[in-house]
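Incident log, structure service

09:12 report received: a user says their structure output differs between two submissions of the same chain.
09:20 pulled the input from the user's history:
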Amino acid sequence: MESPKHIVTTSDGSHSIYVPELDEHYHSVYGAVQESQHIFIMNGMNVSKSSPLHIFEVGFGTGLNALLTACESINGNREIFYTSIDKYPLDEKIIRSLNHFSFAGNRGKDLFIRLHEAKDGVMTNICKNFSITKITGDFMTYDEEGSYDLIYFDAFGPDKQPELWTPEIFKKISSFTVPGGILVTYSAKGTVKRNLRAAGFEVSILGGPQGKRHIIRAVKK
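09:34 re-ran on a clean worker, output below:
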């Protein structure tokens, strides 16, 4: 059964969500937006040279990573196809209360609404150069048949959802990541590094956002 969720304000003023059952936040309490920008945009999207760019996200959550990616796409010339899977989509009441759009420029609110209104399983154009396919499902049993240049791995932490950080899960991700493709995640635990390497990734440890010492960027061999 899905646990109750509470909106909290992080240090940069942007919202996150706290899940009491897991004692876990969706984003860093030191700043949800700055964390997402640092890990997924600066060290993921802006590093990949693929065009068009195919992104797969494990854990849609509040839609923050998708929102920031869409905002970046407007200012560029690269077409982005974004696929995201989440087992438990957020309740509409919580979505309406989030303030992420206020950190996403003039079109932030419109993009945020479009992202959350996109129909399940249907590729939807959100703005210039950005289309999304949102999937409601369990990644552990989901069979992905596409191929991707960039993976946003944003599941709850290894100590909270260990089943999503196993060698088998990363081998599954490796199977649909193109050679040279990139995976970025906020966790830099030793087991995560080992499991990624066992799945065919070359792992780099990078400096993290405020409040976090390190993050991982891994490249498929």
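09:41 both user submissions now match this output. Likely a transient worker issue. Closing.
09:42 reviewer note: The mean pLDDT is 96. The radius of gyration is 16 Å.
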